[in-house]
Amino acid sequence: MQLRYAFRLYPNTRQEQALAKAFGCARVVFNDAVRAREDARQESRPFPKIGELSVRLITQAKQTVERSWLGEVSSVVLQQSLRDAETAYKNFFASLTGRRKGPKIGTPRFTSRKDSRQSIRFTANARWSIDGAGRLCLPKIGAVKVRWSRALPAVPSSVTVIKDSAGRYFASFVVDTGPAADAARMPDTEQTIGIDLGLTHFAVLSTGEKITSPRFLRRAEKKLKKAQRELSRKQKGSKNREKARLKVARAHAAVADARREFHHQLSTRLISENQGIAVETLSVTGLARTRLAKSILDAGWSQFVAMLEYKAARYGRTLVKIGRFEPTSQVCSACGLLDGPKPLHVRQWTCAACGTLHDRDENAAKNVKTAAGPAVTACRAQVGPGLVPAQRDEAGSHGLPTKTRAAQRHRTR
């Protein structure tokens, strides 16, 4: 299974300038490819092939005065930018014809130097390496200092250098992991659970355990508001405004990192302790249009379920999603009586048939497990997605300061 292991980079001033040049060249080649495709569409001509674009936009462009600076960066970076444009068009046409699942996506757009995320990719033929001192040696950039949070399990096939909106640099390695090593890390177990996601409690398990919602955004709102007010008072285009923008971006990044770390710790624990997991499919997009939108988006249910999916696929666990219209909050988990809908303020209710007193969320979690049926109780068949690539934070808590990681571990105990 292919996974991504991301680590923090600390380039010096000269290396930052070289990376900025590489980001810019990759962006120009991508935009030139999109422009060539759009011109061909408007003129009703066949789309140019990637080989033709490579000759015209890279090889021949380097020989012109206007694009001679493309030769100052690694050619692999430019070739990978062309492949990104090719992939973007393939995804667009697959979405257009219905072969690609999920919401419809639009045509590839032109990228900007002001985009929140800049990236370049080096494959094996770029001859990048890791030296004896643990530095990442990139062609035409140099040996960049890396903060290693853990050892790589295998030799990476490629590395992507990323700069986020907060000005941080990351190196994301693509690594192939072995099924035998994954099976040894998390041996089989006979336990199964159902999960009911909520707001008061982030998750309530069918075992009765309640996991409190950390509410990272709510706790950081005061700091975020202050930083946003300072940004709004700065003159547009000034250096002070850029400093204030970075301050806001770093505050948001700290919230996102803390939430992601919480999701990783909880999902890993649930996957390691249970062979079968049942969770309800939620329409987060629809719920985000209600008055509870901020709290729902702060919880990050979609990110958490996505982590459960790829970790279940990696470690051979069973993950079952039940329909969102299953009346889990209306059915008695003891006798099966359908007691009808209940307002949100009703947190406990007594079954009219058997007299059992139910906690609303715990009862829903039990019904989620029951609704999953034999798929969860069998505990052996792998249900869910195929080989899903991990998110960039699979490598661990490299993006969080040590104090923040310690606080997250304390809160999740």
Give a structural overview.
By secondary structure, the protein is of the alpha+beta class. The protein contains twelve helices and 14 strands. It has helices at residues 13-42, 50-59, 75-97, 179-185, 216-232, 239-273, 284-287, 293-299, 301-315, 360-372, 374-377, 402-411; strands spanning 2-10, 118-123, 129-130, 136-138, 142-147, 158-163, 169-176, 192-197, 201-205, 210-212, 276-280, 318-322, 348-350, 357-359. Strands 2-6-7-1-5-4-3 form a seven-stranded antiparallel beta sheet. Strand 13 (348-350) and strand 14 (357-359) form a beta hairpin. The longest helix is centred in the middle third of the chain and has 35 residues, at 239-273. It is elongated. The protein starts with a strand and ends with a helix. Residues 380-391, 393-404 and 406-413 have low confidence and may be disordered.
Give a summary of the structure in a few sentences.
With 413 residues, the chain is an alpha+beta fold.
- What is the approximate shape? elongated
What is the average per-residue confidence, as pLDDT, rounded to a whole number? Answer: 88
Content of β-strand? 15-25%
Secondary-structure-based class equals alpha+beta
Q: In this structure, how is the largest beta sheet organized?
A: 7 strands, antiparallel
Helical amount among residues, as a percent range? 40-55%
The helix tally amounts to 12
Instruction: Calculate Rg over CA atoms.
Output: 25 Å
Low-pLDDT regions = 380-391, 393-404, 406-413
Strand order of the largest sheet: 2-6-7-1-5-4-3
Record field, number of beta strands: 14
